[in-house]
Amino acid sequence: MNLPCAYPALQTHGCLSRQRIPRLAAADGGQHLERPDPPAGTWHSHHPGNSLADSGVHAKGQIAHFDTDQIQIPPDGLRRSVNHRLPSDILIRAIEPVDDGFDAIASTISKRYQYFIWNDLDRPVFFGDLAWHRWRPLDRPAMAQAAQEFVGERDFASFARPGHKRITTVRNVLACSVSWRGPRIVVAVEGAGFLWHMVRIMVGTLVEVGLGQYPPGRIREMLAARDRRAAGPTAPPYGLFLQWVQV
After folding, report:
1. Rg (CA), the chain
2. One of 54, 100, 103, 122 is an active-site residue; which one?
3. Residue 99 included in any domain
4. Which of 40, 54, 70, 160 qualifies as a FRET site for 130, CA 20 to 30 Å off?
5. Its pTM surpasses 0.90
6. Helix, strand, or coil here: 71?
7. Are residues 71 and 120 in the same domain?
8. What is the CATH number of the domain that holds 228?
9. 159-170: per-residue pLDDT in tens?
10. Residue 83 sits in a domain of what CATH number?
11. How do residues 29-52 score in pLDDT, each as one tens digit?
């Protein structure tokens, strides 16, 4: 079964934990998710989540999966039952039957992140934990122009936190845009996969462009350098949302 779910930033490493799900016990370091008192049959998940390794990151459309032979239970009834057991800030949006070969990680085709920036002299009082407050005026068209430099298959070594342990730092960014309305700025990034802190470093660099620290075309030089020191700072995690995952 596939479980699209949503939650605000958790005090973990971005996925569901035993502390956050008191009625659903996570075993084996979070790699399996089991009911505490399952009926006869199998109820476990090999991959509770396919993204969000950073604590402080939110999810609108995270996905997880579990295996079960209790197929006589209507999926929506099961969804309501699971949601009843979960804390109020975690929501299972659907439970969808999938093929036996489905895997929440391996079956992912692409995913889209959004980063929320509040660009105003005054901080956002009611949602300060959901946006990065930048009080200095940002050149938004320059940021939008710079964002296009990320699109395509590129080596993102300069935009990955050292120690990522990935075999290759080449990633394919399908889209990268900057939109705004009033003080609200949203950076949206869609790709087939991402490196550790990659989106947050991209956002931090775009903000530096917006502040006039770099011209938009400098992104090409940063990518070519393949050196983390060539790019801008890492944006904080709390403005980042996993918007959706395509499987």
Report:
1. 19
2. 54
3. no
4. 160
5. no
6. coil
7. no
8. 3.30.70.660
9. 999 988 889 999
10. 3.30.70
11. 333 333 444 443 444 544 455 555
